[in-house]
């Protein structure tokens, strides 16, 4: 593609970089879409790519990232590697002139993310973090109500995402070399939820239990110049409620379990009956963000207003600040 300016009305031709479980989820969600077509998959070795291609009926499989990104039929690449490899993978895609949808968290740290954003902007290429929560219709509806003053001035945000385990000792979430731990993989959702409502915090406080070079149980308190606070948590050792709420001076909004892919929420206001809002369509799905990438490419937009790059950078800065507070640094981590 090379100029990031879109594809007319024909399907966007996708390549997938990496072949893990999240790549399989993406592939399965692409297949039925009329405006998207899977044309290639790439891995670090030919075997996994060939197996993945057979599984999803993808016409071309490559045993290297370079071959995938050099394929002239590939217009957009979904980067599905562990986040420790996001910087290298996205850079290779951008240098080959491809639009990119990169799995969350954007990178290991803000410096890496800033380098990628600068490269995409310099080359006039589309780049977006795959934060599916931001493309969720229920989240859109909630954000609109908050902007319109439905709950008054926002005073507090609460959100958590914890899983109970136990995880296999070889699991990627326990591997510091892969950027493991609760904060980057799970905590990015509560942090992103708070950012959507309140923006970037003025202060970040955090505590975590560290084990084997990763954080396994982590809490954050974010403070804002408006006087609002966000209390957030994430865990690899506790099956938390996985709920979120936004409380304002005139009411509150509550999301039930699975807030990060939910399809409903409840608005509570004094003197009124609770109002439940439900948004139809697939919630736990890549469909909404795939459609958003398609819309952006057809419109010639180089970033999505739903998942703006400056917002992804702000979230990475908040995660960096939290890691500084808990003393977590990954092996070989460097500024980009």
Q: How would you characterize this protein structure?
A:
The strands form two sheets. The chain has an eight-stranded mixed sheet, covered by helices on one side. A six-stranded parallel sheet has the order 3-2-1-4-5-6, sandwiched between helices. A hairpin with a 5-residue loop joins strand 9 (214-223) and strand 10. The protein has nine helices and 14 strands. Helix content is 33%, strand content 25%. It starts with 11 loop residues before the first strand and ends in a 10-residue tail after the last helix. The protein has helices at residues 21-30, 46-56, 65-70, 86-95, 110-123, 137-147, 182-198, 287-299, 309-326, and strands spanning 12-17, 36-42, 60-62, 76-79, 99-103, 127-130, 154-162, 203-211, 214-223, 229-235, 244-248, 251-255, 264-268, 275-278. With 336 residues, it is α/β, with parallel strands linked by helices. Mean pLDDT is 95; it is low at 1-5.
The biggest sheet amounts to: 8 strands, mixed
Q: How would you describe the shape?
A: globular
pLDDT < 50 runs, ≥5 residues: 1-5
Please trace the helix and strand order, writing H or E for each element.
EHEHEHEHEHEHEHEEEEEEEHH
Helix content: 25-40%
- Structural class from helices and strands? alpha/beta
Number of strands: 14
* Binned strand content: 15-25%
Give the radius of gyration.
20 Å
Quaternary structure annotation: single chain
Strand adjacency order, main sheet: 8-9-10-7-11-12-13-14
Enumerate how many helices there are, as a single number. 9
Kindly, what is the distance between the CA atoms of the first and last residues, rounded to a whole number of angstroms? 26 Å
Mean pLDDT: 95
């Amino acid at each position: 593609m090379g100029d990031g300016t879109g594809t007319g009305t024909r399907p966007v031709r996708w390549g997938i970089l990496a072949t893990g479980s999240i790549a399989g989820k993406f592939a399965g969600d692409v297949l039925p879409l009329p405006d998207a077509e899977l044309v290639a998959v790439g891995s670090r070795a030919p075997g996994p790519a060939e197996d993945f291609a057979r599984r999803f009926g993808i016409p071309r499989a490559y045993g290297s990232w370079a071959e995938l990104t050099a394929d002239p039929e590939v217009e957009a690449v979904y980067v599905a590697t562990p986040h420790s490899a996001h910087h290298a993978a996205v850079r290779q895609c951008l240098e080959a002139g491809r639009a990119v949808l990169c799995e969350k968290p954007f990178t290991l740290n803000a410096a890496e993310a800033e380098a990628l954003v600068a490269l995409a902007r310099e080359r006039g290429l589309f780049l977006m973090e795959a934060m599916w929560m931001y493309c969720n219709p229920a989240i859109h509806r909630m954000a609109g109500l908050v902007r319109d003053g439905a709950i008054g001035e926002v005073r507090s945000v609460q959100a958590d995402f914890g899983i109970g385990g136990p995880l296999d000792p070889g699991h990627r979430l326990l591997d510091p070399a892969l950027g493991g731990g609760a904060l980057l993989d799970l905590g990015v959702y509560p942090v992103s939820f708070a950012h959507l409502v309140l923006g970037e915090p003025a202060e970040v406080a955090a505590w975590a239990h560290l084990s084997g070079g990763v954080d396994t149980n982590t809490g954050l308190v974010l403070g804002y110049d408006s006087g609002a606070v966000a209390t957030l948590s994430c865990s690899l050792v506790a099956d938390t409620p996985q709920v979120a709420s936004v409380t304002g001076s005139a009411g509150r909004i509550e999301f039930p379990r699975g807030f990060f892919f939910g399809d409903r929420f409840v608005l509570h206001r004094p003197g009124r009956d609770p109002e439940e809002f439900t948004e139809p369509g697939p919630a736990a799905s890549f469909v909404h963000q795939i459609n958003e990438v398609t819309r952006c490419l057809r419109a010639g937009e180089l970033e999505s207003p739903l998942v703006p790059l400056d917002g992804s950078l702000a979230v990475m800065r908040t995660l960096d600040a939290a890691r500084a507070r808990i003393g977590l640094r990954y092996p070989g981590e460097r500024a980009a």
